[in-house]
Amino acid sequence: xxxxxxxxxxxxxxxxxxxxxxxxxxxxxxxxxxxxxxxxxxxxxxxxxxxxxxxxxxxxxxxxxxxxxxxxxxxxxxxxxxxxxxxxxxxxxxxxxxxxxxxxxxxxxxxxxxxxxxxxxxxxxxxxxxxxxxxxxxxxxxxxxxxxxxxxxxxxxxxxxxxxxxxxxxxxxxxxxxxxxxxxxxxxxxxxxxxxxxxxxxxxxxxxxxxxxxxxxxxxxxxxxxxxxxxxxxxxxxxxxxxxxxxxxxxxxxxxxxxxxxxxxxxxxxxxxxxxxxxxxxxxxxxxxxxxxxxxxxxxxxxxxxxxxxxxxxxxxxxxxxxxxxxxxxxxxxxxxxxxxxxxxxxxxxxxxxxxxxxxxxxxxxxxxxxxxxxxxxxxxxxxxxxxxxxxxxxxxxxxxxxxxxxxxxxxxxxxxxxxxxxxxxxxxxxxxxxxxxxxxxxxxxxxxxxxxxxxxxxxxxxxxxxxxxxxx
Length: 473
Fold this sequence. Notes:
Blueprint: E1 2-8, E2 11-16, E3 24-28, E4 34-39, E5 47-53, E6 56-62, H1 82-94, H2 99-110, H3 114-128, H4 134-143, H5 154-164, H6 172-181, H7 183-186, H8 190-208, H9 211-225, H10 228-231, H11 236-253, H12 257-270, H13 278-294, H14 302-305, H15 320-331, H16 334-351, H17 353-357, H18 359-378, E7 386-388, H19 389-396, H20 403-412, E8 416-421, E9 426-432, H21 439-466
Parallel strand pairs: 2-4
Antiparallel strand pairs: 1-2, 3-4, 5-6, 7-9, 8-9
């Protein structure tokens, strides 16, 4: 039987079948006007192929095809350009394990469901990256995706292109050339514009180590994002992608650790944890954690520890030793710090020898400074900000003669402000640098505010009794 199932512009698709069983394959008429789907019969009877051409209807007999290397459902329709059909046929024959994905592409192309087709293309590329060589993914883009690229969501188009050209064997010129060809579509979306520049920067950085070109793209993106009138609709995930490529650039340049660290933190802040691959989570959290631990200019880890990526329950990919050390130093807890070192010492000595070498110097110095700020803010009576040197020595586990040096170093970093009284061997702390607090410290502050409010209420009542005329408005 022959049945015309769909039309796409001037192309017609014919499904021919003598049975509902058996694999299917695609064949194309030489006149390129009709795509015929022939379903191989499990019986010995010949197939009948119905062709519509020039307004005439004819029936031809064709023996069943043999030696097919792939399987499919019995109904496939591809009302698309013949070149696109050839592209799918070639992939179908060469990679039968991807047959389900290719059938989905064919069906959605028939139905003109561009949005669903774009999603299916991303899924196909994801499933094929370990199977299909990179050069063939580029051919898949040129032979199939490019035919409807102008109708795709611009952001999805750039993501598809990024996946097709991610392999190092694909030249940068190929990726840049395709981006240039699609700029009229890409320019319709601000997210797509940013992603296209991110893709260019990634290509220059990872394939050519061209830091100058990478820096040019990064600076252009930064200028766009710093313009609130232009960038207010740019999504957070796109901003996160920019900060990741910027962090990789600063790492390759060997520039100031703070630039690298700030972009890593922004990447982990803007990008939902569910959208980050586990290897990337492990790499970026370790890099950010190590810099925070050893850099003398970073003394507040609250911004890191508040991220989902540094929650051991939500992010099992994050190295546990990074979380334990950061949390111990952030709390100024010597006991917790020593426990973390003891727990992870064998691993740290084998893989993080540089960090282990700095434990007795930079890490413990930072721990003592934060412990002093904690002592001043939370572990002394709220009306008493005069700290004795002996109390500081006991709390920070250092000799008394090193206390004054510790106080001056802590003041120089801005963690505390105050006045040193050498005669009385004490320091009067006038302020403590605001830091991101955990739940326990928020509760303590809440309790202190409630106590202050109670005392203020009592004072007001006393003034009303003693001198009510002072309160007359």
